[in-house]
Amino acid sequence: MSAPRPAAGILPAAIAVFGRELLAEWRTRVAVNSLFLFAFAVLVLVAYAVGPTRLSPEDRPTVNAVLLWIVLFFSAMTGLSRTFVHEEDAGTAAALRLSAPPPGVLLGKLFANVVLLGAVTAFIVPLFVVFMGFEIRDPLLFVLLLLLGTFGLASASTFTAALVSKASAKGALFAVLAIPLLLPPLVGCVLATRVAATQADFSAGVDFLRLLVAYDGVVTTAAFLLFDAVWRE
Amino acid sequence: MKGVKSLGFFLKALLGIGMAAICWGAFLWARPAQSFVGESSRIVFFHVPMAWVSTLAFFVAAWHSAQYLRKRRMENDDAAAGAARLGFVFCVLATVTGSIFARVMWNSYWNWDPRETSIVLLLLVYGAYLGLRGALDDPERRATLSAAYALVAVVTVPFLTFAVPRMYQSLHPDTVINTRGKVEMSADIKTVFFSSMVAFMALFYWMWNLDRRVSRIVRERSA
Amino acid sequence: MSGALGYVAAVNIVIWAGIFGYLVYLDRKVRAASRPNQE
């Protein structure tokens, strides 16, 4: 319904939004600090309470897979709603609405969140593997899962953040809205991570990867189609 | 006009009589199916329509959400919200009755069977949708944002219903109606079962219409 | 209870109670809306 203004194409706008987002983040480091600290604190808690030695070898793949994705999921819940919420709080949303085409805004914010969550994942996963004695039999499958899972988390969270930024009681609502959307990929990620931890057979995880690719594609497409209506509201 | 009115009355009376007949048929006429514990197969006549109506309501809500985003008519928002509310109610009923069924069949109220898992997801989606509506005061904004959420939710729900069965394939391969139902249902069970499906769908339609009319009155009076 | 018939009855009670509860909700909503507007 909206023809992007000729002055600003979608991609240049997305890059501008992305750069602005990272710059703003770099100045205050609110989201980065809270994300990393939160993830690290949860990791320490989990590692201290559960630890590598308290699990029997047959329980280890399942429990570690669940705990890892819980840490990543809650990190996403604490940090990723900021992207849109702070625009509304600071009153800069109106200016952004005028100066950039909606798909560009979403794309830029999505990239920013992917980078943010990707950084947290890259930081927390090696520590988790060391602290928890998490043996990965199939590293390739594991890394692909982390990439696709992180993208899925970021994609659904970014769209939810756009919705929530218009409502009151944003923080509580964000988790409530995001959980149903994120449950399917998270269940898949947990199951596939267990597969990656128990067997070095890549073909055993291919179905899960396919599923995650489909999920990421569908949710991102839906987000782009619906964002226009949400953003203009 | 008069004709339409009397047709509506006739259909409602038919639904009432039919519902009574279904209850009678479910308890007294249909014979219990083999391979179920005792008389427990009779639960099917009530539980499956709940789950079916709940799913149907979910898609109806999504359809009207899309219509709202296209045409911006508040009637579509009323319809989507009503379908979601009713879907939530039927979803709760399907969950509780399914849990009772599980108690009879598998001797445990809850064991994360694929069906149980996917209905929990459906409950969460409905709950989130209604929570979002509750958090927004401005009617137009509420309509737009909840419509967008309903549409994103409707595309994610199928993933769990396809993903989860892989997870539990060893536990309950063939215990729920789908695979067995169409093949092995005896004629009397089939009659009551499909009548019950139709009757509960009609009941849903009636309740949904009432809900929309009430929402419309509320909206017009507060305007 | 002979052959789990009690469970079938329980299922019915749950369903009709749920539908009844929804009617109560609609009733309250209509009543709130039909109250004369006090400004």
TL;DR?
The complex is a heterotrimer of chains A (233), B (223) and C (39). By secondary structure, chain A is mainly alpha-helical. Chain A has helices at residues 10-28, 30-49, 60-79, 82-90, 93-99, 102-132, 139-164, 170-198, 206-232.
Q: What do these coordinates show?
A:
The complex is a heterotrimer of chains A (233), B (223) and C (39). By secondary structure, chain A is mainly alpha-helical. In chain A, 81% of the residues lie in helices and 0% in strands. By secondary structure, chain B is mainly alpha-helical. Chain B is 83% helix and 0% strand. Chain B has seven helices and no strands. In chain B, α1 crosses α7, α2 packs across α5 (139-167) and α3 (74-106) packs antiparallel against α4 (114-135). The longest helix of chain B has 36 residues, at 187-222. The model of chain B is unreliable at 170-177 (pLDDT under 50). Chain C is an all-alpha fold and 39 residues long. The longest helix of chain C is centred in the middle third of the chain and has 30 residues, at 5-34. The chains are: A mainly alpha (233), B mainly alpha (223), C mainly alpha (39). The A-B interface holds A 156, 159, 163, 166-169, 173, 176-177, 179-181, 183-185, 187-188, 191, 207-208, 211, 214-215, 218-219, 222-223, 226, 229-230, 233 and B 69, 121, 124-125, 127-128, 131-132, 135-137, 140-141, 144-145, 147-149, 151-153, 155-157, 159-160, 162-164, 166-167.
